[in-house]
Amino acid sequence: MPKKRIILASASPRRQELLKNAGIEFEVRAASIDEVPHPGESPVGFAERMAKEKARAVGTTASAGQVVLGADTVVTIDNQILGKPEDKDDALRMLRLLSGRKHEVITAVCLSGVNSSGKSFEDVRSATTAVYFSQASEQDIREYVGSGEPMDKAGAYASQGGAARWIRKIEGDYNNVVGLPVDLVLTMLREHGVV
Questions:
Q1: Whole-number Å distance between alpha carbons of 58 and 26
Q2: Can you tell me the distance from the alpha carbon of 121 to that of 194, in angstroms, rounded to the nearest whole number?
Q3: In 3-state terms, what secondary structure has residue 114?
Q4: Per-residue pLDDT tens for 13-35?
Q5: pTM higher than the cut 0.70
C-alpha cells in the first residue's frame, strides 16, 4: 500500500493548506494541462472539464490503491470566465469588472481511482459561492495588482489575502472561494471509501 492514498493533482498552496487543516493526508503531483475554455463552454462545464483533465493527467502515475483529486477554480461574472490573469493589464481589467458587484466562484472537484470493491470510478462535482465586492478605488486596485498577489489567482484576487478588504458578503462555502470546497471533498472521499 502506498504511503499516501490521495494524490492532489495541484501545486496550489491554498488547496494543500485546506486539505492539511481538514486532517487529510496526501501527496502532491501537479498536473500540467492547457487551461483554455472551449467556445461557448459554460463556467461550470469548463471548471469540471479542467478538474477531470488534471485528475486524468496525474492518474497515469498513480499506484494501485491510490486515488487522484483534481480541482479547478474559476471566477465568473456576466457569464464570463475569469481565470488567472495573463498580465498586469488583464488583472486590472478583472478587478475593475468585479469592483462593487456580485460574482460567483466555482470550484470543480474530480476524484478518480479504484474503490474498495475494486471498481474504477471518476466522480466530478462542483460548488458555487456568491461573492459580493465593495467598490474599490482605482488606486487600491493598482496597488493590489502591483503587489503581485493577483497574478496566479482565478479572478485576479485572493480572498484570504489583500482582496479581503473588498469582500462585503459571501453566500456559500468560504473554502470554495479559497480554492477547495472541503466539505464536498470529504463527502466524496467518504462515499468512495477513501477516508
A1: 14
A2: 12
A3: strand
A4: 999 999 999 999 999 999 989 98
A5: yes
Q: Is residue 159 classed as helix, strand or coil in its secondary structure?
A: coil
CA atoms of 31 and 48, how far apart (whole Å): 15
Q: Compute the radius of gyration of the chain from its Cα atoms.
A: 17
Amino acid letter at 183? D
Task: From 188, 43, 66, select the one nearest 128 (Cα to Cα).
Answer: 43
Nearest CA to 164 among 186, 180, 149?
149
Chain centroid, CA 119 distance in Å: 27
β strands within the chain, DSSP E: 6-8, 27-28, 67-77, 80-82, 102-114, 120-133, 167-171
What domains can be seen in the chain, in order of their start residue? Answer: 6-191 (3.90.950.10)
Work out the burial of residue 162: count CB atoms within 10 Å of its CB; fewer than 13 is exposed, 13-18 middle, 19 or more buried.
middle
* DSSP code, position 173: -
Tell me the sheet residues that pair with 102. Answer: 132
Distance CA(141)–CA(94), nearest Å, equals 10
C-alpha grid cell, residue 21: 487543516
**Active-site residues: which are they?**
72
- Give the pLDDT confidence of 141-186 residue by residue, as tens digits: 999 999 999 999 999 999 999 999 999 999 999 999 999 999 999 9
